[in-house]
Amino acid sequence: MCENQSLTSTVQGSCTVSGMRPTGPLHIGHYFGALKNFVSMQENNKAFFFVADWHALTSDYADTSRINEFVDSMVLDWLSVGLDPEKCTIFRQSSVKQHAELHLLLSMITPNSWLERNPTYKEQQQEITTKDLGNYGFLGYPVLMASDILIYRPSWVPVGQDQLPHMELAREIARRFNYLYGETFIEPQAKLTPAAKCPGLDGRKMSKSYGNGIFLSDTMENITPKVKSMFTDPARLRKSDPGNPDVCNLFPYHILLTDEQKQAEIREGCKNASLGCVDCKKIFMQGLENFLDPIREKRASITKEYIHEVLAYGNDKARQAAEETMQLVRANMKLA
After folding, report:
1. H-helix or E-strand containing 165?
2. What confidence tens digit (pLDDT) does each residue in 214-246 have?
3. Could you count the other beta carbons within 10 Å of the beta carbon of residue 195?
4. Helix (DSSP H) and strand (DSSP E) numbers for the chain
5. Residue 74 · residue 215 · CB < 8 Å
6. How far is Cα 81 from Cα 299, in angstroms, rounded to an integer?
7. CA atoms lying within 13 Å on the CB side of residue 27
8. How far from 281 is each of 66, 228, 251, 286, CA to CA, in Å?
9. What are phi and psi of 81, to 5 degrees?
10. In this structure, how many other beta carbons lie within 10 angstroms of the beta carbon of residue 325?
Protein backbone atom coordinates (compact mmCIF):
# COMPACT_ATOMS: atom_id res chain seq x y z
CA MET A 1 0.00 0.00 0.00
CA CYS A 2 1.28 3.49 -0.83
CA GLU A 3 1.66 5.46 2.32
CA ASN A 4 3.28 8.75 3.17
CA GLN A 5 6.33 8.34 5.36
CA SER A 6 4.74 10.60 7.96
CA LEU A 7 2.12 7.91 8.62
CA THR A 8 4.40 4.89 8.54
CA SER A 9 8.11 4.45 8.90
CA THR A 10 8.10 1.18 6.95
CA VAL A 11 7.61 2.73 3.54
CA GLN A 12 10.61 4.42 1.97
CA GLY A 13 10.49 6.85 -0.91
CA SER A 14 7.30 8.18 -2.41
CA CYS A 15 4.24 6.81 -4.16
CA THR A 16 2.38 8.16 -7.15
CA VAL A 17 -0.69 7.23 -9.16
CA SER A 18 -2.05 8.36 -12.51
CA GLY A 19 -4.44 7.14 -15.20
CA MET A 20 -5.63 7.79 -18.75
CA ARG A 21 -9.01 7.28 -20.40
CA PRO A 22 -9.09 4.66 -23.20
CA THR A 23 -11.04 6.60 -25.79
CA GLY A 24 -8.77 6.08 -28.80
CA PRO A 25 -5.14 5.81 -29.93
CA LEU A 26 -2.51 7.87 -28.12
CA HIS A 27 -0.67 10.62 -29.99
CA ILE A 28 2.75 12.18 -29.50
CA GLY A 29 1.14 14.92 -27.39
CA HIS A 30 0.23 12.22 -24.86
CA TYR A 31 3.84 11.09 -24.84
CA PHE A 32 5.43 14.48 -24.21
CA GLY A 33 2.60 15.62 -21.93
CA ALA A 34 2.31 12.53 -19.72
CA LEU A 35 3.94 9.25 -20.77
CA LYS A 36 7.47 10.62 -20.74
CA ASN A 37 6.89 11.55 -17.10
CA PHE A 38 5.37 8.13 -16.35
CA VAL A 39 8.54 6.44 -17.60
CA SER A 40 10.78 8.59 -15.41
CA MET A 41 8.50 8.26 -12.35
CA GLN A 42 8.64 4.47 -12.36
CA GLU A 43 12.36 4.60 -11.64
CA ASN A 44 12.24 6.17 -8.17
CA ASN A 45 8.65 5.78 -6.96
CA LYS A 46 6.12 3.11 -6.15
CA ALA A 47 3.99 3.92 -9.17
CA PHE A 48 0.44 2.86 -10.10
CA PHE A 49 -0.73 3.58 -13.66
CA PHE A 50 -4.25 2.58 -14.61
CA VAL A 51 -6.40 2.45 -17.73
CA ALA A 52 -9.44 4.48 -16.65
CA ASP A 53 -12.15 2.57 -18.51
CA TRP A 54 -14.89 3.59 -16.06
CA HIS A 55 -13.96 7.23 -16.66
CA ALA A 56 -14.38 6.64 -20.40
CA LEU A 57 -18.05 5.88 -19.70
CA THR A 58 -18.70 9.37 -18.31
CA SER A 59 -18.90 10.74 -21.85
CA ASP A 60 -18.90 7.63 -24.08
CA TYR A 61 -21.57 5.59 -22.29
CA ALA A 62 -23.81 5.39 -25.37
CA ASP A 63 -21.33 3.27 -27.34
CA THR A 64 -19.06 0.96 -25.36
CA SER A 65 -18.23 -1.38 -28.25
CA ARG A 66 -14.57 -0.35 -28.61
CA ILE A 67 -13.51 0.13 -25.00
CA ASN A 68 -11.84 -3.30 -24.71
CA GLU A 69 -9.93 -2.63 -27.92
CA PHE A 70 -8.81 0.78 -26.67
CA VAL A 71 -7.73 -0.70 -23.33
CA ASP A 72 -5.38 -3.12 -25.10
CA SER A 73 -4.04 -0.48 -27.49
CA MET A 74 -3.37 1.93 -24.61
CA VAL A 75 -1.35 -0.66 -22.69
CA LEU A 76 0.50 -1.48 -25.91
CA ASP A 77 1.39 2.20 -26.30
CA TRP A 78 2.52 2.39 -22.66
CA LEU A 79 4.76 -0.66 -22.97
CA SER A 80 6.19 0.47 -26.29
CA VAL A 81 7.40 3.80 -24.87
CA GLY A 82 9.08 2.18 -21.88
CA LEU A 83 6.69 1.49 -19.01
CA ASP A 84 7.95 -1.67 -17.31
CA PRO A 85 5.55 -3.92 -15.33
CA GLU A 86 8.51 -4.96 -13.17
CA LYS A 87 9.00 -1.33 -12.10
CA CYS A 88 5.40 -0.10 -11.88
CA THR A 89 1.88 -1.46 -11.50
CA ILE A 90 -0.14 -1.30 -14.73
CA PHE A 91 -3.80 -2.20 -14.27
CA ARG A 92 -7.36 -1.74 -15.49
CA GLN A 93 -9.57 0.42 -13.29
CA SER A 94 -12.71 -1.72 -13.63
CA SER A 95 -10.79 -4.84 -12.55
CA VAL A 96 -10.21 -3.35 -9.11
CA LYS A 97 -13.73 -3.15 -7.68
CA GLN A 98 -12.49 -1.39 -4.55
CA HIS A 99 -12.38 1.81 -6.64
CA ALA A 100 -16.16 1.59 -7.09
CA GLU A 101 -16.76 0.83 -3.41
CA LEU A 102 -14.72 3.82 -2.28
CA HIS A 103 -16.39 6.01 -4.90
CA LEU A 104 -19.80 5.07 -3.47
CA LEU A 105 -18.73 5.84 0.09
CA LEU A 106 -17.07 9.14 -0.81
CA SER A 107 -20.10 10.22 -2.85
CA MET A 108 -22.14 10.06 0.37
CA ILE A 109 -20.04 12.78 2.02
CA THR A 110 -19.35 15.02 -1.01
CA PRO A 111 -21.67 18.07 -1.23
CA ASN A 112 -23.31 18.70 -4.61
CA SER A 113 -22.02 22.27 -4.54
CA TRP A 114 -18.42 21.03 -4.62
CA LEU A 115 -19.12 19.22 -7.91
CA GLU A 116 -21.17 21.97 -9.51
CA ARG A 117 -18.43 24.55 -9.01
CA ASN A 118 -15.90 22.39 -10.89
CA PRO A 119 -14.68 24.63 -13.76
CA THR A 120 -13.94 21.66 -16.05
CA TYR A 121 -17.53 20.43 -15.71
CA LYS A 122 -18.89 23.78 -16.86
CA GLU A 123 -16.38 24.22 -19.68
CA GLN A 124 -16.87 20.77 -21.18
CA GLN A 125 -20.65 21.04 -21.05
CA GLN A 126 -20.33 24.16 -23.20
CA GLU A 127 -17.67 22.79 -25.55
CA ILE A 128 -18.87 19.21 -26.11
CA THR A 129 -22.22 19.66 -27.80
CA THR A 130 -22.33 16.31 -29.65
CA LYS A 131 -22.92 14.25 -26.48
CA ASP A 132 -25.46 14.40 -23.68
CA LEU A 133 -23.40 15.15 -20.56
CA GLY A 134 -26.34 15.66 -18.23
CA ASN A 135 -25.63 12.44 -16.31
CA TYR A 136 -24.43 11.90 -12.76
CA GLY A 137 -21.35 10.05 -14.02
CA PHE A 138 -20.09 13.19 -15.72
CA LEU A 139 -20.99 15.46 -12.80
CA GLY A 140 -19.55 13.06 -10.25
CA TYR A 141 -16.43 11.90 -12.05
CA PRO A 142 -14.18 14.02 -9.77
CA VAL A 143 -15.37 11.84 -6.87
CA LEU A 144 -14.37 8.71 -8.81
CA MET A 145 -11.08 10.40 -9.61
CA ALA A 146 -10.59 11.14 -5.91
CA SER A 147 -11.25 7.47 -5.16
CA ASP A 148 -8.71 6.39 -7.80
CA ILE A 149 -6.11 8.55 -6.09
CA LEU A 150 -6.88 8.18 -2.38
CA ILE A 151 -7.21 4.41 -2.43
CA TYR A 152 -3.43 4.12 -2.99
CA ARG A 153 -2.68 6.82 -0.41
CA PRO A 154 -0.02 8.50 -2.57
CA SER A 155 2.30 11.22 -1.39
CA TRP A 156 1.83 13.21 -4.58
CA VAL A 157 0.09 13.05 -7.95
CA PRO A 158 1.53 14.33 -11.25
CA VAL A 159 -1.00 16.59 -12.98
CA GLY A 160 -1.19 19.36 -15.51
CA GLN A 161 -2.32 22.87 -14.62
CA ASP A 162 -5.87 22.10 -15.78
CA GLN A 163 -6.18 19.26 -13.25
CA LEU A 164 -5.43 21.37 -10.17
CA PRO A 165 -9.15 21.94 -9.33
CA HIS A 166 -9.67 18.15 -9.33
CA MET A 167 -6.68 17.63 -7.07
CA GLU A 168 -7.91 20.25 -4.63
CA LEU A 169 -11.32 18.54 -4.57
CA ALA A 170 -9.64 15.19 -3.82
CA ARG A 171 -7.82 16.84 -0.92
CA GLU A 172 -11.07 18.38 0.36
CA ILE A 173 -12.82 15.01 0.22
CA ALA A 174 -9.93 13.37 2.08
CA ARG A 175 -10.02 16.13 4.69
CA ARG A 176 -13.78 15.76 5.17
CA PHE A 177 -13.53 11.97 5.49
CA ASN A 178 -10.74 12.27 8.07
CA TYR A 179 -12.81 14.79 10.04
CA LEU A 180 -15.88 12.54 10.09
CA TYR A 181 -14.27 9.14 10.64
CA GLY A 182 -10.74 9.69 11.90
CA GLU A 183 -7.37 9.85 10.20
CA THR A 184 -7.57 7.58 7.16
CA PHE A 185 -6.32 9.31 4.04
CA ILE A 186 -3.25 11.32 3.21
CA GLU A 187 -4.00 14.62 1.49
CA PRO A 188 -1.93 14.08 -1.66
CA GLN A 189 0.06 16.96 -3.08
CA ALA A 190 -0.22 17.93 -6.72
CA LYS A 191 3.06 17.84 -8.62
CA LEU A 192 2.88 19.90 -11.77
CA THR A 193 4.37 18.16 -14.77
CA PRO A 194 6.37 20.25 -17.24
CA ALA A 195 4.08 21.58 -19.94
CA ALA A 196 4.88 20.32 -23.43
CA LYS A 197 3.35 22.34 -26.24
CA CYS A 198 2.09 19.91 -28.86
CA PRO A 199 -0.32 21.72 -31.18
CA GLY A 200 -2.42 19.70 -33.57
CA LEU A 201 -1.80 19.58 -37.28
CA ASP A 202 -4.46 22.26 -37.79
CA GLY A 203 -3.26 24.60 -35.04
CA ARG A 204 -5.83 23.54 -32.47
CA LYS A 205 -5.00 21.42 -29.44
CA MET A 206 -3.91 17.95 -30.53
CA SER A 207 -6.88 15.72 -29.76
CA LYS A 208 -8.20 12.29 -30.67
CA SER A 209 -11.65 13.79 -31.17
CA TYR A 210 -10.34 16.43 -33.61
CA GLY A 211 -8.47 13.89 -35.75
CA ASN A 212 -5.50 16.25 -35.93
CA GLY A 213 -2.83 14.15 -34.24
CA ILE A 214 0.28 12.16 -35.04
CA PHE A 215 -0.25 8.86 -33.27
CA LEU A 216 2.35 6.64 -31.62
CA SER A 217 1.08 3.78 -33.78
CA ASP A 218 1.31 5.71 -37.07
CA THR A 219 3.64 4.52 -39.82
CA MET A 220 5.74 7.02 -41.77
CA GLU A 221 3.40 6.37 -44.70
CA ASN A 222 0.52 7.63 -42.54
CA ILE A 223 2.53 10.53 -41.18
CA THR A 224 3.97 11.97 -44.43
CA PRO A 225 0.71 13.41 -45.82
CA LYS A 226 -0.22 14.70 -42.37
CA VAL A 227 3.01 16.65 -42.02
CA LYS A 228 2.83 17.96 -45.61
CA SER A 229 -0.57 19.49 -44.83
CA MET A 230 0.51 20.83 -41.42
CA PHE A 231 -0.07 24.53 -40.69
CA THR A 232 3.05 26.64 -40.26
CA ASP A 233 3.43 30.44 -40.03
CA PRO A 234 0.12 31.77 -41.47
CA ALA A 235 1.82 35.00 -42.60
CA ARG A 236 4.49 33.22 -44.62
CA LEU A 237 2.92 32.64 -48.01
CA ARG A 238 6.13 32.19 -50.06
CA LYS A 239 9.57 30.81 -49.28
CA SER A 240 11.04 34.26 -49.84
CA ASP A 241 8.86 35.71 -47.06
CA PRO A 242 10.61 35.96 -43.66
CA GLY A 243 8.93 33.76 -41.06
CA ASN A 244 8.39 33.87 -37.32
CA PRO A 245 9.11 30.55 -35.52
CA ASP A 246 7.33 31.81 -32.40
CA VAL A 247 3.95 31.72 -34.15
CA CYS A 248 4.65 28.67 -36.30
CA ASN A 249 2.62 25.55 -35.58
CA LEU A 250 5.58 23.32 -36.45
CA PHE A 251 8.44 24.88 -34.49
CA PRO A 252 7.29 23.62 -31.04
CA TYR A 253 8.04 20.11 -32.30
CA HIS A 254 11.61 21.07 -33.13
CA ILE A 255 11.94 22.14 -29.49
CA LEU A 256 10.90 18.61 -28.49
CA LEU A 257 12.67 16.56 -31.17
CA THR A 258 15.57 18.58 -32.61
CA ASP A 259 18.90 19.30 -30.92
CA GLU A 260 19.52 22.88 -29.78
CA GLN A 261 22.15 23.69 -32.40
CA LYS A 262 19.84 22.61 -35.25
CA GLN A 263 16.96 24.51 -33.63
CA ALA A 264 19.02 27.70 -33.76
CA GLU A 265 19.79 27.10 -37.45
CA ILE A 266 16.10 26.50 -38.20
CA ARG A 267 15.07 29.62 -36.32
CA GLU A 268 17.59 31.79 -38.15
CA GLY A 269 16.82 30.22 -41.55
CA CYS A 270 13.10 30.83 -41.04
CA LYS A 271 13.59 34.46 -40.01
CA ASN A 272 15.88 35.32 -42.94
CA ALA A 273 13.90 33.20 -45.44
CA SER A 274 16.86 30.96 -46.32
CA LEU A 275 14.92 27.91 -45.08
CA GLY A 276 11.47 27.18 -46.46
CA CYS A 277 8.57 25.49 -44.72
CA VAL A 278 8.96 22.40 -46.92
CA ASP A 279 12.61 22.08 -45.83
CA CYS A 280 11.60 22.61 -42.21
CA LYS A 281 9.02 19.82 -42.50
CA LYS A 282 11.63 17.46 -43.94
CA ILE A 283 13.85 18.05 -40.89
CA PHE A 284 10.85 17.45 -38.64
CA MET A 285 10.03 14.21 -40.48
CA GLN A 286 13.55 12.92 -39.91
CA GLY A 287 13.41 13.78 -36.21
CA LEU A 288 10.01 12.14 -35.94
CA GLU A 289 11.27 8.98 -37.61
CA ASN A 290 14.25 8.80 -35.24
CA PHE A 291 11.87 9.22 -32.30
CA LEU A 292 9.27 6.68 -33.43
CA ASP A 293 11.59 3.93 -34.77
CA PRO A 294 12.51 2.43 -31.35
CA ILE A 295 8.86 2.69 -30.25
CA ARG A 296 7.77 0.77 -33.36
CA GLU A 297 10.47 -1.84 -32.81
CA LYS A 298 9.35 -2.41 -29.23
CA ARG A 299 5.71 -2.39 -30.29
CA ALA A 300 6.29 -5.16 -32.85
CA SER A 301 7.60 -7.48 -30.13
CA ILE A 302 4.55 -7.16 -27.84
CA THR A 303 1.74 -9.69 -28.23
CA LYS A 304 -1.87 -9.39 -27.09
CA GLU A 305 -1.25 -12.33 -24.76
CA TYR A 306 1.57 -10.42 -23.07
CA ILE A 307 -0.65 -7.34 -22.68
CA HIS A 308 -3.25 -9.46 -20.89
CA GLU A 309 -0.55 -11.02 -18.69
CA VAL A 310 0.67 -7.53 -17.73
CA LEU A 311 -2.87 -6.45 -16.84
CA ALA A 312 -3.62 -9.62 -14.86
CA TYR A 313 -0.39 -9.21 -12.88
CA GLY A 314 -1.04 -5.51 -12.29
CA ASN A 315 -4.70 -6.02 -11.41
CA ASP A 316 -3.70 -8.43 -8.64
CA LYS A 317 -1.11 -6.05 -7.21
CA ALA A 318 -3.51 -3.09 -7.35
CA ARG A 319 -6.33 -5.10 -5.72
CA GLN A 320 -4.09 -6.06 -2.81
CA ALA A 321 -3.06 -2.46 -2.20
CA ALA A 322 -6.61 -1.15 -2.63
CA GLU A 323 -8.09 -3.78 -0.30
CA GLU A 324 -5.69 -2.81 2.49
CA THR A 325 -6.98 0.74 2.28
CA MET A 326 -10.61 -0.39 2.12
CA GLN A 327 -10.22 -2.49 5.25
CA LEU A 328 -9.11 0.66 7.05
CA VAL A 329 -11.96 2.67 5.50
CA ARG A 330 -14.62 0.12 6.52
CA ALA A 331 -13.23 -0.13 10.03
CA ASN A 332 -13.14 3.63 10.52
CA MET A 333 -16.69 3.98 9.18
CA LYS A 334 -17.84 1.13 11.47
CA LEU A 335 -18.86 -0.90 8.39
CA ALA A 336 -16.46 -3.80 8.91
Report:
1. helix 164-181
2. 999 999 999 999 999 888 888 888 888 898 999
3. 10
4. 15, 5
5. no
6. 8
7. 21
8. 34, 7, 9, 9
9. -95, -5
10. 20
